[in-house]
């Protein structure tokens, strides 16, 4: 009985270690934000990587008074940013692509917490 318990603990420990290692190899991670019913994801980079970023916001929609944008998420060591992604049918799309492909409706985006409304000057 004692030998069976030790083997069981060993198997569970080995499975937990394998799960942890594989989980770190998958670059896409789940965020707390949602657009409509779709969960938002982001790509993680190494903390040792330094990034040069050309932009911090993505313009998704524009009317005569406002631009509707979302900001990129800080990742890695703070100098890197990740676009926002939507996971659909074993493939992920940038949030702007998902809206263009009607995976996420523009109305859901405009009502979400990730949208930032910037007045056009």
Features:
3 helices, alpha+beta, four-stranded antiparallel beta sheet
Report what the structure shows.
With 121 residues, the chain is an alpha+beta fold. The protein has one domain. It is 29% helix and 37% strand. It contains three helices and nine strands; from the N terminus they run H-E-E-E-E-E-E-E-E-H-H-E. Strands 1-2-7-8 form a four-stranded antiparallel beta sheet. A hairpin with a 3-residue loop joins strand 3 and strand 4.
- Spatial arrangement of strands, main beta sheet: 1-2-7-8
pLDDT < 50 stretches: none
The number of helical segments is 3
**Series of secondary-structure elements, N-terminal to C-terminal:** HEEEEEEEEHHE
Measure the end-to-end span: 76 Å
Largest sheet: 4 strands, antiparallel
Estimated radius of gyration: 20 Å
Strand fraction: 35-45%
User: What is the number of strand segments?
Assistant: 9
Specify the helix fraction band. Answer: 25-40%
Structural category: alpha+beta
Basic shape? elongated
How many individual domains? Answer: 1
Averaged pLDDT: 80
